[in-house]
Write a structure and sequence with these properties.
The protein is of the alpha+beta class. It has four helices and seven strands, in the order βααβββαβαββ.
Length: about 150
Amino acid sequence: MRIELEAPISEDVYGLLGEHLREMLAISPAESVHALDRRALSAPDVTLWSVRDAGVLLGCGALKELAPGLGEIKSMRTAGAVRGRGVGARMLIHLMETARKRGYARLSLETGTEEFFAPAHRLYERHGFRECPPFGDYRGIRTASSWLWT
């Protein structure tokens, strides 16, 4: 498995993120879906990476700088066929290491509260994240589960 910077963002990554958006809209209330669109993924404050094996896309993840020293994990997704094989953990570690190198004192993320998200919650806990009150635009959304790593 290799992690590669997606700049420009390839069509297979857009396809995986489109699948992600459709699945999130089927599982979560619309006000709880905060996936980035193509324009937002290309913003200067967002960096997106893919995980590939022999050129085959396995997953992706992004870091968004919210403010100096503060980042947010966005668009983390593993292809359905390879879930449970460590792709998400590999990407999460990469994002955490990158955040450290960038000097982020805090790294946050938001995910859903439904049972579907339980494996993701366990992944974040294993890597030192803890649940926290909603941050930023997620305040007031009762179906958002916010996590913090410091």
